[in-house]
Amino acid sequence: MDYEIVIGLEVHSELKTKSKIFCGCSTQFGSDQNTNVCPVCLGLPGVLPVINEKVIEFAIRAGLALNCEILPFSKFDRKNYYYPDLPKNFQTSQYDLPIAVNGYLDIEVEGQTKRIGITRVHMEEDAGKLVHSGTINNSDYALVDYNRTGVPLIEIVSEPDIRTPEEAKAYLEKLKAILQYIDVSDCKMEEGSLRCDANISLRPCGTEPFGTKAEIKNLNSFRSVQRGLEYEAARQEQVLEEGGRVIQETRSWDEAKGITLSMRSKEQAHDYRYFPEPDLVPIIVDPAKVEEIRQSLPELPDARQKRLMNDYGLSSYDASVITASKAMADYFDETVACQADAKSVANWLMGEVSKHLNTAGLDIEACPVTPAKLAGMIALIDKGTISGKIAKTVFEDMWSSGKDADTVVKEKGLVQISDASAIVAIVDSVIVANPQSVADFKAGKEKAIGFLVGQIMKQTKGRANPEMVNKLLRERL
């Protein structure tokens, strides 16, 4: 039987506030364990929470960027469950009246645009962090760090509109970009500031009712999300094909083994015994404040992609790659503002710049070649001072030394040879030294000229003007 995959994603994003959601403790990552805590976030008796106004502003900002309706009246609720990293034995979250509802996000997969509905965006506090002696499924003990307890989160819940693991990955990449563009979260998955739980079920193709879903946790990268969903879809299909039934449960993704493992039965909403948080007043949002936040939103990825295509003639693919990261898009705009050709900038960003960043494990914010320096190097190529091939050598030196292109070219003697008389002499010597290749070319073997060009470039150490070399070589032949 053919099955259709149905996927819904729940994304938790830590907000970039300096203090926690209900107290004044720092949200700084990497502090010594259990140092960013106080009686409020530890849930000690007799304390009262106070909402951090910046959290509400950031949540509205995210809701608007995700095309949501901002509810004028929302409230906090207590989500009751017991777990060692939850000192109050309940999580302060939002249930039936969240801050934002009914949004959407457009993704592109294999050239096709698809709209993914967003059910809700709500605010809540984060739990602490359990540090296991082994894996989550096999440990002798676990330690608890409460520094993360009370760090503000928004949870973004999608509609079950996603049909493939590839779509899930594209959705997450787009969502991450939007949150970074509006500057509400740094989205560092390695630090836990962007986390994803995936709900997946199968149903026979052509049918309407959803199948029984499993929730996958411990997905700590976009690659893990895609791999975890691929595995779970295959597992559920095997269960159904063998006549079994899928159990509604929470499963953990084991990255090393590439499999999901059963953790516990999946809770329903009533299991959490939600009720309104009695220690916090409801949130009433002024429509004028919502409009003020809307007007303050920056140019978002889709709009920026269209601008790069319309203003600079970039292809849809090139523009989407550059705008997928706000930092990369900012670098592009700054380089073009230095009078560099936009298409050349795009090629260098997606080529040598990305290659060096990946090798060094750096984000583009830490790139040692500044936009102005990259623009200066591209100007030398455009003027014919250096060739594209030499430019790669120049860029390598700029990366390691921090020098600008002019300095590197002068120090290394890399100025391109464009003197026809100097090139002709080398062309003639190569023709004399390679009679067989000359004969092959004259016999109609066009590839032979490539070998001769290579010999000329070798003698000039790559400094000869390639166009001039080809022109003069053909003339002499």
Description:
- By secondary structure, the chain is an alpha+beta fold.
- The protein has three domains: 3-292, no CATH class; 299-412, no CATH class; 420-476, Arc Repressor Mutant, subunit A, CATH 1.10.10.
- It has 15 helices and 16 strands.
- It has helices at residues 53-65, 165-181, 222-241, 287-296, 301-312, 316-323, 326-337, 342-360, 371-383, 388-401, 405-412, 420-433, 435-442, 448-459, 466-476, and strands at residues 3-14, 69-70, 73-74, 77-80, 90-93, 100-109, 112-125, 129-132, 142-145, 152-158, 194-204, 214-219, 249-254, 259-265, 275-276, 283-284.
- The strands form four sheets. Strands 2-6-7-10-1-11-12-13-14 form a nine-stranded mixed β-sheet. The protein has a three-stranded antiparallel β-sheet with strand order 5-4-15, with no helix packed on it.
- α7 crosses α9 (371-383).
- The longest helix is centred in the middle third of the chain and has 20 residues, at 222-241.
- The termini are far apart.
- The mean pLDDT is 91.
